[in-house]
Amino acid sequence: MSLKTGYSDDVTRGFLTWSIIWGLVAVLVGVFISFQLVFPQLNFPPYLTYGRLRPIHTNAAIFGWGIGSFMAMFYYITQRLTKVPIWSPGLARFQLWLFNLVIILAAVSLAMGYTQSKEYAELEWPIDILVVILWVIFAVNIFMTIMKRKEEQMYVSLWYIIATLVGVAVLYLVNNASIPVSLFKSYSAYAGANDANVQWWYGHNAVAMVLTTPPLAIFYYFLPKITGVPIYSHRMGIIAFWSLIFMYLWTGAHHLLWTPVPDWVQTLAMGFSIILIAPSWASVFNGYFSMNGQWHQMRDNYLVKFLIFGITFYGLQTIQGPSQAIRTFSAFIHYTDWVPGHVHMGALGWVSLVLFAGIYYLIPRLYNTELHSVKLANAHFWMATVGQLIYSISMWVAGVQQATMLHATNADGSLHYTFMETLAEMYPYWHMRAGGGVIYLVSLLIFIYNIIKTIRSGSAVGETLRATGAA
Ligand code: HEM
Ligand code: HEM
To answer: What is the pTM for the complete model shown?
Structure first.
């Protein structure tokens, strides 16, 4: 615990360290599976095949890197916004170890082929139970801290934190309801189209409650800290928050257009997806307008670059997403590489850039020192951005070509290309994606080197003189 601030930051340091480790694992596996697609001989059955490594990649990325850093930053932010120390530092430390245990069990069980076969909800029921315990501990600790707060006003970041805690709990419990038949196997409590509907209600709200609300909480907190000027409109932030939460929950079936799910459910999802542009862009505008008179900081302050590029990719993502949710557009790009292009603009561009900004801001303060090298941080920024753009753009082009070929017909109505012909055309793009991935990986190694050097030059003991300024 800090003598100076009274806040407990040990757990933030712990979660940050582990989230960076899991982030590295996620990216290494991501790059490896990108190469497996181009060089199938890189599949080593039974454990190291594409089929088993892909969910390890997504779980390590979303839960290890994403949720790990969110937990770190939620603890940090909540204490500062409520002006009280965390309710139970002991429980938070226990949560860190349970979190790591879950991630390790996830990696091992997925490598062994145990899966519920639901994307982003692959983990079998015993691990699900651990996840529920983990989440309850986290939620209780944050809620108790908020309840004991000394600051009456609830800054918008706190609302996003609360939404994440409640949203993930509801989604996880409903979609993972299953009937165990052995220690390692269970069957979903739902069947057929209902199962698909529940799964994608979960799937897209995982995008909402894991890949949107936490980075927004972090963005709204760190932007004013980093630029030194307040957010443009708190009221707009709150209105956007409530409308975003209300609208997201109806959109899941946009993953199931043209399927046996009832037509009205698909139309509802399409409609809500389109109007979701409004609350999403309200946050983008809030970010941009907060920069009025401050745009020079894009040049002078490396952290601003991460945040503003991050929110810009969020803006692009939330135009692309609603477009994809339109039936005719979906008919074209669904089942093509366009979709991983969409995913990684958000994952690498939006979520990760905002997390990097937060980590760069926090590490020097948590270890009472200065960042080792701003030059390296700038190199990291540019390489990560270029790597991500190569990934996303090559996949969009690949997706359009693949879609065009899959839809091409002869005069008699038969398909012009075989599936294998469309696949062979993807190889150049998959090479490009692997190249983009390698650039991103190198940028991540630079980031990790910079962070290690920074930590080594500081000390976590009796922290931190600067945290008072950060509070
Ligand atoms: C207004 C907001 C958004 C809308 C309406 C939207 C819409 C969509 C649609 C329609 C798909 C399905 C594409 C297909 O398979 O045909 C999709 C996929 C996906 N989106 Fe978005 N998107 C939005 C924002 C985001 C954001 C901010 C992220 C963050 C990274 C994201 C991550 C994903 C992921 C991970 C998938 C792939 C799911 C899968 O098939 O496994 N989306 N999105
Ligand atoms: C340079 C780093 C990365 C590389 C090279 C990479 C590569 C890949 C590849 C090859 C796939 C499979 C695509 C397919 O099945 O066609 C994939 C899927 C996915 N990755 Fe990554 N990835 C990286 C980083 C990340 C990060 C940091 C996140 C999240 C924060 C992430 C989230 C996802 C998700 C959600 C999917 C599933 C997409 C879908 O089902 O459409 N990835 N990634």
So the answer is: 0.96
- Residue 386 alpha carbon to ligand 1 centre in Å: 21
pLDDT at 250: 95
Within-domain flag for 265: no
Q: Residue 464's pLDDT is what?
A: 44
Tell me, what CATH number does 351's domain have?
Answer: 1.20.210.10
- Which residues does a 6 A CB cutoff place in the pocket of ligand 1? 119, 203, 207, 211-212, 251, 254-255, 273, 276, 280, 314, 317-318, 321-322, 324-325, 330, 333-334, 339, 342-343, 346-347, 350-351
Query: Could you tell me if the CB of 215 is within 6 A of ligand 2?
Result: no
Q: Is 437 in the pocket of ligand 2 (CB under 6 A)?
A: yes
Give every residue of the chain whose pLDDT is below 50, as ranges: 3, 462-471
What is the rounded CA–CA span in Å between residue 242 and residue 310? Answer: 22
- Residue 256 covered by a domain: no
- The domain in which residue 402 lies consists of 10-194+323-470
Q: Which atom of ligand 1 is the closest one to the Cα of 206? A: 35
Please indicate, yes or no, if residue 227 is contained in any of the structural domains. no
The CA distance from 195 to 349, in Å, is 31
CB-based contacts of 189, cutoff 8 Å, min separation 6: 177, 178, 179
pLDDT in tens, 321-330: 999 999 999 9
pLDDT value of position 466: 43
Q: Which two tokens stand for residue 24?
A: 């590295």
CA 254 vs. chain centroid, Å, equals 19
Number of domains in the chain: 1
